[in-house]
Amino acid sequence: MFTQVNSKVVAVDIGQTGPVIARKGAMLYYTGHVLFQPHQVAGAPGGFGAGGIGGMAGRLMSGEHESTMIAQGNGKVHYGFRGIEVKIVDVGASGGLLRIEASRLLAYTSQLQVSVVSVASQGGGGGGGGGGLFGSLRSAAAGAITGQGMYTTQLSGAGTAVMLGHGGIFDLPVTPDKPVVVDPQAYVGATGQINTTLKSTMSWRNAGRTGGESMQLECTGHGVVFVQASEEKL
What we know:
Helices cover 13% and strands 47% of the residues. The chain has helices at residues 14-17, 52-62, 132-146; strands at residues 2-6, 9-13, 20-23, 27-39, 68-79, 85-90, 97-100, 105-109, 113-118, 151-156, 160-165, 169-174, 180-182, 187-200, 215-228. The protein is mainly beta. β1 (2-6) and β2 (9-13) form a beta hairpin.
């Protein structure tokens, strides 16, 4: 399990938890005997727009290409990134499923199964682009506008993960009778069965006068949405 040292740093004893995967450059210091090696995250399933060249392009567009390192051995490792606030999530205790933007994922325990999945396959997200090539193109267009891409990182199983958020991260419960609407650039991730749909409040009457609130992400279903206290990107 990760422990929080302060609002921006976490520590983990890999002799107790087993190997830990973290984004490259996140290791601050360690004690003991620890070996760091490059780690490869599984890609999306095959098929145009999901795997191969289409999937690679989608992952690059959506930011789902962060380089990661695996730490193994017997020691205590401290992680942080650019002085950004951190939040620890027990994925197993949160329904066994966490979907998170790759740029917002600092580290996680190796017991979690990790893959890059299409947002369309999650019943929404990225603007509700739908399936197929045209759905992927619509999702890509929405991602270019809001910072939400065609793909997202999915962690499942029992284990813990650490998220990054400018200004800190807070939880927003979502129930079938209480959807939540957030700024897409403040969205970090979600646990549970959450569907996301991109909405626009812009029309020809208010074009140029809606500010940053012209695009909104509606979150429905049952679970928790994580939002950072800023619209700043990593």
